[in-house]
Design goal:
Blueprint lengths: L4 E5 L4 H9 L4 E5 L10 H14 L4 E6 L7 H4 L7 E4 L5 H11 L2 E8 L17 E6 L14 H4 L8 E4 L7 H8 L3 E4 L4 E3 L2 E2 L1 H12 L7
Parallel strand pairs: 1-2, 1-8, 2-3, 3-4, 4-5, 5-6, 6-7, 7-8
Antiparallel strand pairs: 9-10
Helix pairs in contact: 1-2
């Protein structure tokens, strides 16, 4: 059985959050970027994260943002149900540290990889964030594109901090990606969807079976 962590991102329905958590995933992501088709209004997030926790205590709620300014301070409060801020903008290591100290949240920094040299940025965040998340660079999209980082770029990639792989990850290729690159976690969205924000629970179950083994949901 593989020990890779698994996050399902872009949920919008509390019932689905509970069902996904019950299947055995480690984290559930909610999008706080208004331009995203998976955006969820601030007043609906607590209900979703509470449903997630009811499905599996210990499943972590992740709020996905990009360059949050002071006007979003109230949304960053973990009282809204999340434990992790996943930052998809141009946040520097100093900005990540500041947000961690101010909010009390764990920080994951997403980096969009458009060329092999972009991977060198990962270790800039060592000792500052809990993990980095690598996604493919796609013009005008901060994530959820379903595009993959070219596998050749990740050969031999061994950063000095935990990392998650995103972009085009699904039940059909998860085992292959884990075996080839040994990420600490997989972040999955579009590959298990019927439509943006609406997950196909059969595909989520298949993914969990691949990544965790069929006994995961019983744990």
């Amino acid at each position: 059985m593989l020990s890779t962590l698994l996050k399902i991102c872009g949920l919008r329905q509390p019932a689905q959050a509970q069902a996904v958590a019950e299947l055995g995933v480690d984290a559930v992501g909610v999008i706080a970027v208004p331009s995203s088709p998976r955006w969820l209004a601030p007043d609906q997030r607590l209900e979703l994260f509470e449903a997630m926790t009811a499905g599996r205590p210990g499943c972590r709620g992740v709020l996905v943002l990009a360059d949050p300014g002071d006007e979003l301070d109230s949304q960053l409060d973990p009282a809204h149900g999340h434990q992790v801020l996943q930052l998809h903008g141009r946040e520097s290591p100093a900005r990540c540290r500041e947000l961690a100290e101010r909010t009390g949240c764990t920080i994951w920094k997403a980096l969009r990889i458009g060329r092999p040299e972009d991977l060198e940025r990962v270790n800039d965040y060592g000792g500052v964030v809990e993990a980095v998340l690598l996604d493919a660079w796609v013009p005008d999209q901060l994530g959820g594109s379903g595009q993959r980082i070219p596998p050749a770029w990740l050969e031999g990639f061994k950063p000095g901090l935990p990392w998650w792989l995103a972009g085009g990850v699904g039940p059909a290729n998860a085992a292959e990606l884990v075996e080839a690159f040994h990420p600490d976690g997989l972040d999955v969205s579009s590959a298990v969807e019927r439509a943006p924000g609406e997950k196909n629970l059969d595909l989520v179950r298949a993914l969990v079976d691949v990544v965790k083994g069929s006994a995961a949901a019983a744990n």
